[in-house]
# Entry
Amino acid sequence: MKKRFQMKDLECANCAAKMEAAICKLEGVHSATMSFMTQKLTIDADESQFDAIMDQVEAICRKIEPHCTVKR
Amino acid sequence: MGTLTGRQKHTLWRIVLSALLLILARLLPQQPFSLLYYLVPYAVIGWDVLWGALGNILRGQVFDEHFLMALATIGALFTGEYAEAVFVMLFYQVGELFQSYAVGKSRRSIAALMDIRPEWANVEVSEGEWHQTDPEEVPVGACIVVKPGERVPLDGIVVEGASTLDTAALTGESAPRRAAVGDSVLSGCINQTGLLRLKVTRPYEESTVARILDLVEHASEKKSRSERFITRFARYYTPCVVAAAAALFAVPALLLALLPGEALPGFLAGTLWSDWLHRALIFLVISCPCALVISVPLSFFGGIGGAGRCGILVKGGNDLEALAHAETVVFDKTGTLTRGTFAVAAVHPAGEHLTPEALLEMAALAEQWSNHPIAHSLQAACPRPLDPGRVEQVQELAGHGVCALVDGRKVCVGNRRLMEEQNVTVPPCTLPGTLVYVTAEGRYAGYIVISDQLKPDAGEAIAQLKKLGIQRVVMLTGDSEEAAAATARQLLVDEYHAQLLPADKVALTEELLARKSAKGKVVFVGDGINDAPVLTRADIGIAMGVLGSDAAIEAADVVLMDDQPAKIGVAVGIARKTARIVRQNICFALGVKGIVLVLGALGSASMWAAVFADVGVAVLAILNAMRALHVPSDAAR
# Structure
């Protein structure tokens, strides 16, 4: 399942790249792109695990950029 | 600077305040406690960086830029370089502010460019009465009213009224387009003069506006190779520079502590451990890769936006990048180089017993349900309306023609290949144009000559591509050899192939792909349904705009909103400019950083040089990247 999310307060391009790399490594994620320019996260992941994956995604984003949030 | 956000304004005030305090600290007499003078502006400008760095350490994020900046400036304070420490932090914040301002600005200008989303549709409830509805809720077949000055919310056909439409937002074309009863109107255009009543032909999700917005929003997902390279590079760059900084400090410091003065190697002689600390700090200041990481996607984003302004939709950064390396451009002829509006030029029945009108009517009836441009022109040439009840068992043979039962007789209409398949011998013909042969009950009945007109800018388009250094321009067509040769001569294409089936076009494209150089790309430009496989197979598929088929637009990498072939040269130009900017930025940023790293290690670069290599380079790279958004206004014509 492919879904797109709007990011809030994503401020550094390098952080966005780091988040993308970390999200891609999560189990159940087929592909992920974090666009710094459009502030959008696109995730293609297993539908059954999607909510659990999104919790992990939020944790990753918080860890790399504390005030950055994913609008779900 | 009226467009700064609250947070940006806040940072700007802190920068100004801190700069004033720094100047004040410099003016005060220096004494043993002067560190305190500098700590005030340092705290004003750097508290959030320090706080962020602390948080990052706790979360295990060591190579974060806040942490690196904090480490570098605190280190500078320790070595007694108070003014430098404050200045580095100050400049870092200036760079960050500028970066966020520039990114915001280019985001906004692209959003404004793509501000074509209709807010409402006036759905007619009864004669002369309508109410505003969300375009997504309007069903196909509904009647909507578009007042002058309003944006057309949904694709439709004019049922009443006449007006001119401003299509600039869609096509980049500034000349208004006329719309009268029976014309189809695209959503996203602005109605300029008269009231129009439209019958909706497509739901919102499939409308032109929705498709364009979807393409644009997805454009930044397909990242370019340069962008992937630079993010990968950044992942290794920072840890390496930090490790080098640690070594640059630790090794000389250890040697200085352990070895007696006369045993020291030459480069250590006469240095103190604090000199090496200072050099290591210079490394830390340069270790942030953000300028590089941001300038590449920013350039592509700008390039895609600039192309969009000319009515050229590029689906992704990777496509724009590939387009810059275009080496071979392959055109489909019909509908791409030619108007695709055929007109019957001559009708030649085979014998005395058949009149030209009867032959034409027979062919037009058989082609009744076909969407091919040839079918339309046959129908248009018939003086009487055609009765669909006379046709049965229609069979379309892609690349060949059509067979059907007309008035109970088996009629086949198509090209020479169809005749050969049916073992019908046809007389030779030298008239330029497309020949449509007709058989009735398996016997040759005659032929019809249909000719197509070149688009006015077709010749210019090809000349422009040659001027851009495209090595080979190829034309492919399903048309006859004669028609193709005539067009090829007129347009000066390097190579043409006629009488091709869709599968042949794919095969020929594969051949061209095999012949090109390693870095060169093969571009295919087409519009028809039959082109979808080739559009996918070529390195870059360009579909001719909203007039093309949905399948072709889906398969293409670049979509021309209008159907002017001259836009291809413009697209290649924009792609090359963007690629050039990206290359400049990468070389410049890496070059400056590299030089300052070397000079820093040798002890001849100051902290000021390091700040320039970090923030200065970021600002210049961003300014350069924003050039990609600007397209010369004459290119939009």
Observations:
- The mean pLDDT of chain B is 83.
- Chain B is about 50% helix and 15% strand.
- Residues 121-150+155-201 of chain B form a domain with the Calcium-transporting ATPase, cytoplasmic transduction domain A fold (CATH 2.70.150.10).
